[in-house]
């Protein structure tokens, strides 16, 4: 548009109010910084909400009974829905970019605070996470579009570097909060509630403070702040509906689609780090959740700083492409080193930290410059196509992530095994299975450490079957007491009670009477049952007494006089005592015989069986040991295979870094800072001439009046 056609009047149509947040003039530096700050904080918050599940991914999978494949499906479906959200945002741009961000914050904050922590089934969780992902896909387009609107090209890399803090600082918040709160708040729901409170607080800030440019203003190209007057003047003659026509046609170009694909491939490592670093470090290197998240702090913290510095330098030198090349090269070297370190079990925490630092800084240098160059490339075709171009990028990014993450279960099957069965096997081996009691866990732990225990228990059980049956009727405490002191009378009485089934007091009385009336019992044992029955009725006739004396004399081999005395002594035993001895005496004798036979078993064997025999027959213990026997070797093999499988995956991410490099040449922008400065001087001269023509035209209008 030439200076002669710039209208001097015709106000810009801008909607106002809580829904109509449009500005009819380009804001000053203070207001512009405020709006950019709100956009950045909003983006950080939305990514925090999207990524918070990754801090407690293994807990969520366990508590909601998700397999590793199902958890990956949750992430994949989420990113797929995010791609849909990105396209929707490009189509819904007319509703207002600020509105998409503001009310997106309200929706995600409510879901994260009130809905996701109360998801009690994996399907419910999947649906709710899908809703959060759709909103995130919308905001991925709306928020950088707002940043582009409020940042001229000269400061674009710095502004986009700030916007790129969204996923980076969002990830940093996830790891920082979780690594410092998981110990005191081990439940996974706490992480969501904390995040949801933050989300709703930021929604209030955005609701009250966020604004956007009217379409007539934002659809203009602004190279630097000196262009403000020209941009506002041009905007008065712009029909936003007409300018929006064909924006998708302008966005679907090779120099837009190609770089969008390239950055998606480049960011494979980033999204793997966001989604699966916790899984990688907990299953491959045995880190706790807190330690794995703390390692992520290195990635996100250094990247946040590098994004700001790289953006500033790119704007200062007025070039993007050299930063992308250098950053991609540094990042690629770091990913290669990371892949190599994966298969070395002795790779330490800080060794990983410095490799991550290299990747983090390199990718930050490339990404901040790329975001600026990409939006400038879209502007080269049409500033009105900004949202459409960003929608192409957002959708492409998510399609790539969906395609790659969808194959994780196939590419790294060991990870699925270690997530699905590793925690249970680890808990069983450590004797910490929450479904078992302390005594049950002790047995499972011992057998896991020494499988020969179960074999020995079976061998002893077969060898001493009857004695083992006797031992099974004894409590562990009584068995231990008898093994320690076979002459312990209290322990023997208790053991006899347990073997015979008679009350211990009754057994004790029988034992006492047996000792007290030992001679009388020997006398009674010589009598015929019929004689005993007759005497029990109180018979005193000479025939019965004579028969009894004869039986005693013959049975004990004593004279008649002695036999007569023995019969008289037997008669002095109280009938109740004698009746008790007659009924319980044989039972006691059988119990004594069994206990004596048990005493022939070596004490070491008894101690062993007392410790493990009964427990190994416990159905819960047997089930745990069967699971350990079935899945233990599988988990052991997965533990061995896991590093090599992960290394193969990290090399795929390395290839993605290389794929990014040739797409840099498709983007707009100079390679030489000198030529970029010359372009800026030429642009400033053109703007100065246009402003002079505009001023002259307005002066002529005033004179005409």
UniProtKB/TrEMBL annotation:
<feature type="transmembrane region" description="Helical">
    <location>
        <begin position="298"/>
        <end position="315"/>
    </location>
</feature>
<feature type="transmembrane region" description="Helical">
    <location>
        <begin position="256"/>
        <end position="278"/>
    </location>
</feature>
<feature type="transmembrane region" description="Helical">
    <location>
        <begin position="125"/>
        <end position="147"/>
    </location>
</feature>
<dbReference type="InterPro" id="IPR036259">
    <property type="entry name" value="MFS_trans_sf"/>
</dbReference>
<feature type="transmembrane region" description="Helical">
    <location>
        <begin position="649"/>
        <end position="668"/>
    </location>
</feature>
<feature type="transmembrane region" description="Helical">
    <location>
        <begin position="159"/>
        <end position="178"/>
    </location>
</feature>
<feature type="transmembrane region" description="Helical">
    <location>
        <begin position="100"/>
        <end position="119"/>
    </location>
</feature>
<feature type="transmembrane region" description="Helical">
    <location>
        <begin position="352"/>
        <end position="374"/>
    </location>
</feature>
<keyword id="KW-0813">Transport</keyword>
<keyword id="KW-0472">Membrane</keyword>
<dbReference type="Pfam" id="PF07690">
    <property type="entry name" value="MFS_1"/>
</dbReference>
<protein>
    <submittedName>
        <fullName>MFS transporter</fullName>
    </submittedName>
</protein>
<feature type="transmembrane region" description="Helical">
    <location>
        <begin position="322"/>
        <end position="340"/>
    </location>
</feature>
<keyword id="KW-1133">Transmembrane helix</keyword>
<dbReference type="InterPro" id="IPR020846">
    <property type="entry name" value="MFS_dom"/>
</dbReference>
<feature type="transmembrane region" description="Helical">
    <location>
        <begin position="190"/>
        <end position="210"/>
    </location>
</feature>
<feature type="transmembrane region" description="Helical">
    <location>
        <begin position="395"/>
        <end position="416"/>
    </location>
</feature>
<feature type="transmembrane region" description="Helical">
    <location>
        <begin position="68"/>
        <end position="88"/>
    </location>
</feature>
<dbReference type="InterPro" id="IPR011701">
    <property type="entry name" value="MFS"/>
</dbReference>
<feature type="domain" description="Major facilitator superfamily (MFS) profile">
    <location>
        <begin position="35"/>
        <end position="466"/>
    </location>
</feature>
<feature type="transmembrane region" description="Helical">
    <location>
        <begin position="31"/>
        <end position="48"/>
    </location>
</feature>
<keyword id="KW-0812">Transmembrane</keyword>
